[in-house]
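hiii, so i know i said id send this last week but things got crazy w the move. better late than never?? heres the sequnce for the chain we talked about at the cafe, plus the structure i predicted for it. fair warning i was half asleep when i ran it
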Amino acid sequence: MKIKILYEDKNILAIDKPSGISVHPDGRSKEKTISDWFVKKYPKAKNVGESIFVEGKEIKKPGIVHRLDKETSGVLLLAKNQKAYEFLKNQFKNREIKKVYNAIVLGSVKNDRGTIRKSIGRSGNDFRKRLAGRGARGELREAITEYTVLKKFKDECVQNFSSCAQLSAQKGEQSGTLRDKNFVHTHPFSYLEVRPKTGRTHQIRVHMKFINHPVVNDSLYNPNQPHPKDFERLGLHAKSIEFKDLKGKIVKVQSPLPKEFESIINKA
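okay and structure toks below
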């Protein structure tokens, strides 16, 4: 596993997490994770952090102070010792850490700027999912997400004929051709900068779904929907993170925009 290091001192590590790699084990898959890479490279950090229990099985999360979803890429912080772990955890708890994401979402977002304030709970139908609004169950936790539209564009999308044709019919679109059993048409998308002010599970994905502009290629919250023709990954990237090191100095770490994003945005 090749992982790019973006920042490092004797206490804290920031890496550029690739899309498609889980941050820590889930107790079911045997795929290598960021935790595996971290322990191999920094064996003294093996017992840093906490464990979780999944179906009665203990799963260690060495160095993990926050997480990115498996298909999300970008900046991820890791603690190399327990003191750094507690220090960073407190910053997350007190909302002192600033995070910025880039997202490609379905549809043309009407307002150039916006703030989504909608508490998030669990889905009553799928244990993997979280919900904002109707249907949310259990404890509803405050969630705030700010966004800015950087670009609106249209791109040719190829999708399953039935779902794409149905979507176009709902929008009154007449354009489209049948090509190799796929429906080919042009669809609007938006490229956003997103700043979550809280850190709920799947927060950006849930909030964008809530305002009817779900993140493209989100198999959990936006299955079988149009996406840019040559863009096959989840449209979410952790662009930057800003935190204090143990000396109190503010550090900002940035991850380059993945080439998949660049090719779509530059083409648009």
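btw Confidence is low (pLDDT under 50) at residues 170-181. thought thatd interest u
miss u guys!!
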